[in-house]
Amino acid sequence: MTITLFKHALVTTTATAALVLLAGGIASAHVDPDPIAMQAGTAGTVQFKVEHGCNGSPTKSMKFQIPTGVTGVTAVDKAGWTATVTGDTLEFTGGPLAADQEDHFDISFTAPTTAGDIHFPVIQTCDVGEIAWIEIPAEGAAEPENPAPTIKITEGPPTSAELTPAPEEEGTTEGTVVATDTGAVPTTAAADTSDDSSNTGAIVGIIIGAVIVVGGGGLLLARRNKGAAPKDTPQA
Questions:
Q1: Is the separation of the CB atoms in 21 and 28 below 8 Å?
Q2: Where are the beta strands (DSSP E) in 18-149?
């Protein structure tokens, strides 16, 4: 699986999402870690919550990329699922998990000794299609469409504010579904979405342009009909 494949899927789905958003908002959904903050160098277990499948298709695999600096990685046993660690990836396979059912996959590990954000890019594979939760937000930028689960590593014990999730934004999609692939989680955790925004603008522009053309054409026709002189009545 390559970032190029993910990028193509993101552009295609963003265009589709633009049409859907014109009709109404869509509730946001992610793969959310709990807790969202850990003290540097400490061991703990994090739940990664899955909120949905892939466009109505049940989930059969969750493949996580382990961040640099994370050690002692083990999967918490989960009924009906098998966990395998290969290199820097940990994969749960089994289920399947119904597309409309929430669940969580738990991983125990020791946090890096240096404070900062760590990211767990994950590929969610379903019976039909998959979602690549691999995008890393740029500093000060809006949250991407398919964000990778992020955990804040703090120097001391996390404060209550650091353990409180930020409010979810409205208007995001359920994630970009791409073709199923059996490759590893990509090592590059961010996908370039610059083309996505331009495509979204183009789609919206096309829709608005079409409305203007159709409406303008109707108005011009009405004016012509109104302004046309009546035919002369034949003389007796």
A1: no
A2: 31-34, 37-39, 43-50, 59-65, 71-75, 81-86, 89-97, 103-110, 116-119, 122-126, 130-133
**Res. 153: pLDDT tops 90:** yes
**Cα–Cα distance for residue pair 115/39, rounded to 1 Å:** 8
Please check whether residue 232 lies inside any domain of the structure: no
- Where in the sequence is the domain holding 178, given as residue range(s)? 3-198
Residue 163 included in any domain: yes
Structural element, H or E, at residue 180: none
Element (H, E) at 230: none
Cβ-proximal residues to 173 (8 Å cutoff; 6+ apart), any chain: 13, 17, 20, 26, 145
CATH number of the domain enclosing 194: 2.60.40.2230
Distance between CA atoms of residues 115 and 118, nearest Å:
9
What span, in angstroms and rounded, lies between the C-alpha atoms of 82 and 51?
20
Q: How far apart are CA 201 and CA 2, in angstroms?
A: 26
The string of pLDDT tens digits covering residues 158-168 is 998 888 887 66
Overall domain count for the chain: 1
Indicate the helix (H) or strand (E) that contains 222.
Answer: helix 194-227
- Gap between the Cα atoms of 236 and 233, Å rounded: 9
Q: Is residue 228 a part of any domain in this protein?
A: no
Higher pLDDT, 120 or 236: 120
Is there a domain that residue 194 lies in?
Answer: yes
